[in-house]
Amino acid sequence: MKHLLLILSFLTLSLGQISAQEKNEIQVTDMYAFGYVTSLNDSIVYLTEISNMPRVTVNKKNGFLVNRSSYSNQLKEHFKRMGIEHPTCAIIFDRNRKKISKKFVGMMKKLQKNNRYFVKTISAEEFTFKELDTSSEE
User: Which one of 21, 38, 47, 122 has the lowest number of neighbouring Cβ atoms within 10 Å?
Assistant: First the structure.
């Protein structure tokens, strides 16, 4: 009986969290992003070109891209297929094209200024973020 009450309590709390999370999310028409990839075994840093990401979900409260780890995983899997072991990936995003361009240029300058890294840009033909299937979440 105690286990049943514990399970029911857990389910109630989980459902409450899901509905609270849904209230914090909104659909956004466009988001712009680029990826940053590095490996501790290599001095090359990869930056993807800026991509337009239509219909992504953003947390209303803090402006963060929901499921951003899924986008980072897309990038990670791409680089693993290229033969790069243990890539460390990040996604940098913004709703404003000018702001994301400014972030891209700033990161590029910082990396090029530091002579320890060789910066390689990955073209949109080589890698583009894919839209996530959010139909099961709705």
Answer: 21
